[in-house]
Design brief:
It is a single chain. The chain has 4 helices and 11 strands; from the N terminus they run ααβαβββββαβββββ. By secondary structure, it is α+β, with helices and mostly antiparallel strands. Strands 1, 2, 3, 5, 8, 10 and 11 form a 7-stranded antiparallel beta sheet that branches. The chain is globular, with a radius of gyration of 17 Å. The protein starts with a helix and ends with a strand.
């Protein structure tokens, strides 16, 4: 386990980037930061009719880090506090073209894609080119919140040099029939709303 001050030193020295060390999904619900940010994030939930499934989580890491293409089974919000992230999004209807790992594969979840958007392999994954025209790209800047509906595929890359800081929250999906809907789409909101 690395203490926050040690991790900050790793970021400043470039070791976190070299060693691909990223603090992800660190619960901050009871912290002063969580208490400060919760009202702004909850306003997005209220505006879109969402009910919280989990509390706030911190994502803190080096620029250049990429979370692979995947989807979440609940609605999500990603609030960018420092730096920028590039988010590539695909509707659930593109799932077969994004090659999720099979259910029978041990150790890798079926909600993670086998493709790398920055290194497409047309021989192994020929249907990816069918999904690419449907790709939505969002540059999430500090002070913005991205709403990502359930089952929307997304790849998230920290494009800032130095480091980035984000907060996410997952929300319950209602009604459940909406789980594979293409009618609900991603939206960017200002944190202040």
């Amino acid at each position: 386990h690395v203490r926050p001050c040690e991790y900050a030193d790793m970021l400043l020295q470039g070791r976190a980037r070299e060693e691909s060390i990223y603090l992800a999904q660190v619960p901050i619900g009871e912290s002063a930061l969580g208490a400060h940010l919760r009202p702004a994030i909850d306003r997005v939930g209220t505006a879109t009719g969402l009910r919280a499934a989990i509390d706030l989580n911190l994502w803190w890491g080096p620029g250049g880090h990429t979370e692979p293409l995947h989807y979440d089974s609940g609605d999500g919000t990603l609030a960018q506090l420092y730096g920028e992230k590039q988010v590539a999004l695909f509707a659930p209807s593109q799932s077969k073209n994004l090659y999720p790992f099979p259910l029978s594969r041990r150790g890798i979840a079926p909600w993670i894609s086998r493709v790398y958007l920055n290194r497409p392999d047309d021989e192994r994954f020929p249907r990816l080119k069918l999904a690419l025209p449907h790709r939505l790209d969002v540059t999430l800047k500090a002070g913005q919140i991205l709403y990502i509906p359930a089952n929307w595929w997304h790849e998230v890359t920290a494009v800032s040099s130095g480091f980035i800081v984000s907060i996410n929250r997952f929300w319950k999906v209602a009604p459940l029939t909406r789980l594979f809907s293409n009618r609900v789409t991603p939206v960017v909101y200002p944190i202040s709303m």
